[in-house]
Design brief:
Number of strands: 6
Distance between the termini: 61 Å
Strand content: 5-15%
Number of domains: 3
Oligomer: single chain
Radius of gyration: 24 Å
Helix content: 40-55%
Structural class: alpha/beta
CATH superfamily of the largest domain: Ribonuclease H-like superfamily/Ribonuclease H
Number of helices: 18
Largest sheet: 6 strands, mixed
Shape: globular
CATH topology of the largest domain: Nucleotidyltransferase, domain 5
Length: about 375
């Protein structure tokens, strides 16, 4: 019988440097461990780490990052190539590890990605998988906890412990199924790809922040010049003061400022900015608009081209999806092989970016490449 299915999680709260060094040393003696994080990200630009959960198969350790000063033993565990780290839906956890410790956990396996290749949907939750494979109900009652607030209650700690307690036996069950089929190497490749994408996400580029503003494509080059200056300033303020972007100025309000070019704070209120935005940021926004007026038209950003507005888009997308469906290997779904987003990424790479070889789309990487090349060939034949 699986012990984790027979017993509730037994855990220790780790809140000293000495205790952390001890549990990390024990974990590095194992071949596989489970990891998870709890964090808060409401008003801040960066997530605030509140708890790290570690299960080495023997004991669950709930690591309190608010009371530990020396994380070097944990960083050594994250980077230990001899210890496989198991996570579930890892994208946000990876960003937290990279931000807090400048280290990604390597190597990793993500049970959500594993489940994807077993036909269980593209985003199966831990509770669903635990019920299906382990016949246990995972408590999700403390999902909305403020993990920064102390002390954490027993129920909150039990909830956090459960997230890794069931992760290891679940991994072993999924691994057995995958090992009996042809997709284990593809899973490993997609987990490695998740690490690569996390590194790219951390590279904040304030110069291109305006491209992330909704409806930026509707603006002309002069308006985009304003938006570019405004968005760059907003992101720099958000990072420097660790504020959520919307706590500086809301995106839709930044767009309106760029569109309507208000000349004073009264006009800012008229176009919809809040009293607080105008009171705190109004003077600076007017200075930035004055700065934008000095930009030469030769230096305006180009209009934003949306791939969906290309006359060839509908036909190309239909043909690519039909071909991808035809080429999808037995046992996989089209969504795993070539999602709509990844097909659009291929279109942009060809139509907008002139096929840079140092920035290959996902469809031309790893196990997808052979099929991706066939899709690329088809795309180039479309008029």
């Amino acid at each position: 019988m699986i012990k984790e299915c027979q017993n509730p999680p037994c855990f220790s709260l780790i809140n000293s440097n000495y205790a952390l060094a001890d549990v990390c040393q024990s974990a590095r003696e194992q071949s596989v461990v489970a990891l998870d994080t709890e964090f808060v990200r409401v008003s801040s630009y960066f997530p605030k780490l509140g708890l790290i959960q570690l299960y080495d198969g023997e004991r669950v350790s709930l690591i309190d990052p608010l009371s530990i000063t020396d994380f070097s033993p944990f960083v050594a565990l994250l980077s230990d190539q001899n210890v496989l780290k198991i996570l579930h839906a890892c994208s946000e956890d990876l960003l937290v590890f990279l931000q807090e410790f400048d280290q990604l956990p390597q190597p990793i396996m993500d049970t959500q990605i594993m489940a994807r290749f077993l036909g269980l949907g593209t985003s199966a939750g831990l509770a669903k998988l635990a019920r299906q494979y382990l016949n246990v109900d995972v408590d999700k009652g403390a999902t909305r906890t403020n993990w920064i607030k102390r002390p954490l209650s027993e129920s909150q700690l039990h909830y956090a412990a459960g997230d890794v307690w069931y992760l290891l036996p679940l991994y072993h069950r999924l691994q057995q199924e995958l090992a009996a089929g042809p997709w284990l190497n593809a899973v490993l490749a997609d987990c490695a790809l998740a690490l690569t994408k996390t590194k790219k996400l951390q590279a904040y580029d304030a110069e291109t922040a305006y491209l992330d503003i909704p409806n930026a494509w509707k603006l002309n080059p002069l308006e985009l010049a304003r938006l570019k200056i405004l968005a760059k300033w907003r992101q720099e303020v958000a990072i420097t003061r660790d504020l959520a972007l919307s706590y500086v100025v809301k995106s839709e309000h930044l767009w309106k400022v760029a569109k309507y070019n208000p000349r004073n704070t009264s006009e800012m209120l008229e176009i919809g900015l809040t009293n607080n935005e105008v009171r705190v940021r109004g003077k600076k926004i007017l200075q930035l608009l004055a700065q934008a007026r000095r930009i030469s038209p030769y230096d305006y950003p180009k209009r934003i081209v949306r791939i969906v507005d290309d006359a060839r888009y509908k036909k190309a997308m239909r043909l690519l999806q039909e071909k991808a469906y035809e080429l999808t290997p037995q046992g996989l779904t089209l969504e795993i092989l070539a999602s709509k987003r990844s097909l659009e990424e291929l279109l942009k790479w060809v139509w907008l970016y002139n096929e840079p070889q140092d920035k290959l789309p996902d469809l031309l990487l790893g196990w997808r490449r052979e099929i991706g090349l066939q899709l690329l060939s088809l795309l180039k034949s479309i008029e």
